[in-house]
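Pipeline run #58 for the internal structure catalog. This entry was flagged by the ingest filter as a single-chain record with no existing model, so it goes straight to prediction. Upstream metadata was stripped on purpose; only the residue string is passed forward. Reviewer on rotation: M.T. Logging verbosity set to normal.
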Amino acid sequence: GGGAYGVAKAGGAFDLVRFVQQPQVLARIVSAVLALIVFACLVGDGYVNRSEEEKLYCIFNRNEDACRYGIGIGILAFLACIFFFMVDVYFPQISNTTDRKYLVLADLGFSGLWTFLWFIGFCFLTNQWSWTRTEDVFIGADSARAAITFSFFSIFSWGLLLTFAY
């Protein structure tokens, strides 16, 4: 009954309560919060230095790429969640089948790519954390562990978004 990509259901009034109760909207909110936590942990406590040094370095084995990767995918994931959240808001109003198809395919492709990138990020951060010397970590260890943990959870939240898009 819904036609191609639900086009037969297009139109009607916006119901906020019904909208927020949709599983893909809840998963998108969770994904945005997880991405926010990851990049906030890395921006806030991901760079440290010793008292005798002036230059800040990444807490993950002094590998700047580890911090940049985590911050980069976190920011882009958060912005994408906002974009696709807005798409979710306006999707019922779109009656053009082609537009709906491209939006669903964009959500599917982006969610698949970001599921993979979060997996790579989790592996990369975990590997670099395992090689980090304990004398290099004075503060920020909890933030580094939180970034790793929430990167792991992000794999599943984006995988869930992938499933909903499919």
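catalog note: The chain has one domain: 22-164.
catalog note: The mean pLDDT is 89.
status: ready for reviewer M.T.
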